[in-house]
Design goal:
The complex is a heterodimer. Chain A is α+β, with helices and mostly antiparallel strands. Helix content of chain A is 51%, strand content 15%. Chain A has three domains: 7-119, Orthogonal Bundle (Butyryl-Coa Dehydrogenase, subunit A, domain 1); 123-228, Butyryl-CoA Dehydrogenase, subunit A, domain 2 (Beta Barrel); 235-395, Butyryl-CoA Dehydrogenase, subunit A, domain 3, CATH 1.20.140.10. In chain A, the strands form two sheets. In chain A, strands 1, 2, 3, 4, 5, 6, 7 and 8 form an eight-stranded mixed sheet that branches. In chain A, strands 9-10 form a two-stranded antiparallel ribbon. The longest helix of chain A has 36 residues, at 235-270. Chain A is globular and about 80 Å long. Chain B has three domains: 7-94, Acyl-CoA dehydrogenase/oxidase, N-terminal domain (Butyryl-Coa Dehydrogenase, subunit A, domain 1, Orthogonal Bundle), CATH 1.10.540; 129-238, Butyryl-CoA Dehydrogenase, subunit A, domain 2 (Beta Barrel); 256-389, Butyryl-CoA Dehydrogenase, subunit A, domain 3. The longest helix of chain B is centred in the C-terminal third of the chain and has 26 residues, at 283-308. Chain B has a four-stranded mixed sheet with strand order 1-4-5-8. The radius of gyration of chain B is 22 Å and the shape is globular. Chain B contains twelve helices and eight strands. Classes of the chains: A alpha+beta, B alpha+beta. Chains A and B meet through helix 7, strand 10, helix 8, helix 9 and helix 11 of A and helix 3, helix 7, helix 8, helix 9 and helix 12 of B.
Chain lengths: 396, 401
């Protein structure tokens, strides 16, 4: 059985780990948090030029490394561990996936090589509906509108919760034909962020390690070449992109859950009370054991989902490596995201508690994980949202 | 990293499924899906006959080396066998303690004479084994063994006195492997011996334990001057703990996917009832069923990780294996609760007769033992924290003698 990393995959993981341990220190994270971009632009350039991470799963014909989702997930796990502040998630997991799944050949040829060169990009698909009912990331959350004007498309509306929405060079935008509802009438567009009619605002966030933006569209007029795929038939590919991005986020969450556990366990081995390290108390050990159990289960969930994503994406790109799992993509995404969301938050919460008073301070890094855990939980649907999706598959 | 088995293994899967399909018929039809955990007291005679049938087909002890009557099947094929066995509704194996525990221990630590004497009976399904570890005072504290073995020079035999508890299948077993103290002055894991004891003798008495389910699968076993041949100690006196711990290392997780197939059958039953009685429309029940489904799915891939990983040369468990017992036991217990909550007040009504529990009622009660036997959840957490995270052991309180 080969449900384990290959040597090459292990190497990718190790490289990411040692690089990020060096550059994404507590000090570096805090500096990035305070900046307007939310990340160190020089460091990002270094990553793009020297490590070429942004090109990891872009096919070689577009100048990418042509690796798969398992390799991508191995890297994301480390980024989650070290709270790496960068436009990697928005560019690679949102926009690149959108281009790969929904883009026309011309769009792929135009934009994928630019992403390989370091252009940033993101996906903006949700209106304020995403913030309703505790988080609604279904087709109903697509609320920006599109109208036809001759050969052109005119977009209007406000998009919220857009990762790196303020800084991305390219926007992939979802909009619906006026009057359409649900999964019908949705179209996807590639839009340069500096296009006339676009206003972008920063949404100040509790978690400062990943910036979110608001994108306001006022009669943004696009040529037909900006349309991705078929007009009005955008939900199917978009749903796939969201599932892929959801699995990527789950990998980050698992890495974060691992790290907050490691930090916490180290702390309990040093902290002495009643003449013993607090790590020697069963009340602490049992909490730590539960943290490890959750992390390992989360890891199994993420690796499973990554393999499914790998097959689904390969099928999308016309590469034949499908063993029949690609149809499980949306279930796998919900399995991974529901478990990893709850795991990360539970571990961050327990980690804070086990730190005692210092866990409540700004100085210790615990709060960074605690906040990131909640932010990630609520992006692309929390545990309850994804469990309901699973329930629909097995109960309805 | 791959989700699937090799084409060769898939062909093996078809072979197993075909054989089971052809043979789980006629007189064996009624034992399908019976005799598993919580149901082990049922159809014992028929299941013993089935064990021999399996042996005829060459489907017992498939992971054992061929020189001892096995097939030397790979881990993957053992997993597949277990999975297909469960899928087909193969009954709870009466020979599993012999095949999974006694046999591998004898192969690893036993003498040539012991191998010749005991292994064939396990392979051909004729001789059944039970396990004599736990005692009234040795539960989680397994090394606190009080049962004593003394060598009687006159008889030339070991003489055993003491009591074991939670011994499943004891009343129909031919042999029991027993840990007993060979050095009366020793404490904890020192001074123990590992004995192969014949059950059918005047010095051995079996008393069933009536469980929470009203049934009796477990027993107490009393040793009152029970005798054991001089050649039937495995290893030397004093080696007992080493042998017993070695035995725990034989579990490589090959049975986990089969066990999960049973879990899936139970969950399917819960889903069926929920759809039928409308519980499937309740948002809270929907959340719980979805969670149960998701975690069972993950459990499968956690097992795949366990089976794909390199086994530590020192026998140490990988992290995904360390957490496995705590995870599945807790999951299964929650499924029992979910089953009751899906059935609502109807869950409390039994079939007419002598405390006749249906399958899910029985599962609900029986799963309370999952988080206790084989290392309680509390013990599991200690093990995870100490071995997985390197946290310190509890300070020892030394008993004054």
């Amino acid at each position: 059985m080969e449900f384990a990393f290959t040597d090459e995959q292990k190497m990718i993981q190790d490289t990411a780990e040692s690089f990020l341990a060096e550059v994404s220190t507590s000090e570096a994270i805090r500096k990035a948090m305070a900046s307007e971009e939310g990340y160190d632009t020089e460091l990002w350039q270094t990553v793009c030029t020297d490590l070429y991470w942004q090109a990891i799963h872009i096919p070689e014909q577009y100048g990418g490394m042509g690796l798969g989702y398992v390799e991508l997930v191995a890297m994301l796990e480390q980024m989650g561990r070290f709270l790496f502040c960068s436009p990697f998630y928005s560019t690679v997991c949102l926009a690149t996936n959108a281009l790969l799944v929904a883009g026309t050949d011309e769009q792929k040829e135009k934009y994928l090589p630019r992403i390989c060169e370091g252009m940033t990009a993101t996906l903006a698909f949700t209106g304020e509906q995403a913030g309703k009912r505790g988080g609604d990331w279904s087709a109903d959350s697509v609320q920006a509108t599109v109208a036809k004007d001759g050969d052109s498309f005119v977009l209007n509306g406000t998009l919220r919760y857009v990762p790196d929405g303020l800084t991305s060079d390219l926007l992939i935008i979802a909009a619906r034909t006026e009057g359409s509802i649900g999964k019908d009438g949705i179209s996807l567009f590639t839009v340069p962020a500096d296009h006339t009619g676009i206003t972008r605002n920063l949404l100040p966030t509790m978690d400062q390690t990943r910036k979110q933006g608001e994108v306001i569209l006022e009669n943004v007029t696009l040529p037909s070449a900006a349309l991705m795929g078929e007009e009005g038939k955008g939900w199917k590919p978009l749903a796939k992109v969201i599932d892929l991005a959801t699995i990527a986020l789950a990998a980050e969450q698992m890495g974060g859950a691992q790290q907050i556990m490691d930090i916490t366990v180290e702390y309990t081995k040093e902290r002495v009370q009643f003449n013993r390290t607090i790590a020697s108390f069963q009340s602490i050990k049992h909490k730590a054991a539960d943290m490890m159990t959750r992390v390992e289960v989360a890891r199994s969930a993420v690796y499973y989902a990554a393999c499914v994503a790998q097959e689904a994406l390969a099928a999308e790109l016309g590469v034949d490596s499908d063993n029949g799992f690609s149809t499980e993509l949306s279930e796998a995404a919900s399995v991974a995201k529901s478990y990893c969301s709850d795991t990360y938050f539970a571990n961050a919460g327990d980690g804070l508690q086990m730190h005692g008073g210092v866990g409540f301070t700004w100085e210790y890094d615990v709060h960074l994980y605690f906040k990131r855990a909640k932010a990630s939980e609520h992006f692309l649907g929390n545990g309850a949202y994804h469990r309901e999706r699973i329930a629909q598959i097995i109960l309805d | 990293m791959k989700l699937s088995f090799s084409p060769e293994d898939e062909r093996f899967r078809e072979e197993v499924a075909q054989w089971l399909n052809d043979n789980l018929t006629g007189e064996f039809e009624k034992v399908r899906f019976r005799g598993g955990p919580g149901d082990e007291h049922m159809f014992q005679e028929e299941r013993h006959a089935w064990e021999k049938k399996l042996a005829e087909g060459g489907w017992t002890c498939i992971g054992w080396p061929t020189e001892f009557g096995g097939r030397a099947s790979s881990i993957e094929q053992q997993v597949i066998f277990n999975e297909e066995y469960a899928r087909a509704g193969g009954p709870g194996r009466v020979g599993h303690i012999g095949e999974g525990l006694a046999g591998p221990t004898i192969i690893a630590f036993g003498s040539q004479e012991q191998k010749e004497k005991y292994l064939p009976g396990i392979v051909n399904g004729t001789e059944l084994w039970c396990q004599g570890y736990s005692e009234p005072g040795a539960g989680s504290d397994l090394a606190n063994v009080k049962t004593k073995a003394r060598f009687d020079e006159e008889k030339g035999k070991w003489v055993i006195n003491g009591q074991k508890v939670w011994t499943s299948l004891a009343h129909e077993s031919d042999f029991c492997f027993v840990i007993a103290r060979t050095d009366p002055d020793s404490v904890a894991h020192k001074g123990l011996g590992f004995f192969l004891v014949k059950m059918d003798q005047p010095g051995v008495e079996v008393r069933p334990i009536e469980q929470i389910t009203g049934t009796s699968e477990f027993n107490e076993v009393f040793f009152d001057d029970a005798e054991c041949d001089a050649n039937d100690i495995v290893g030397e006196p004093g080696d007992g703990w080493k042998v017993a711990m070695g035995l725990l290392g034989f579990e490589r997780g090959v049975s986990t996917l089969g066990q999960q197939m049973q879990f899936q059958n139970e969950l399917n039953e819960v889903v069926r009832i929920a759809k039928e009685n409308g519980a499937a429309q309740d948002p809270v029940i929907r959340q719980r069923i979805a969670q149960s489904h998701a975690e069972l799915k993950i459990m499968r891939y956690n097992s795949m990780r366990m089976l794909s990983g390199q086994s530590g040369s020192d026998g140490s468990l990988q992290k995904e294996a360390l957490i496995y017992k705590l995870f599945w036991a807790t999951w299964h217990r929650s499924l029992g609760e979910l089953a009751m909550d899906v059935m609502g007040p109807e869950s409390q009504i039994l079939d007419p007769g002598q405390y006749e529990l249906n399958r899910l009622q029985s599962m609900y009660l029986f799963t309370r033992s999952d988080t206790i036997y084989g290392g309680t959840n509390q013990i599991q957490r200690n093990i995870i924290a100490e071995r997985g995270l390197g946290m310190p052991k509890e300070p020892k309180i030394t008993a004054k003698t």
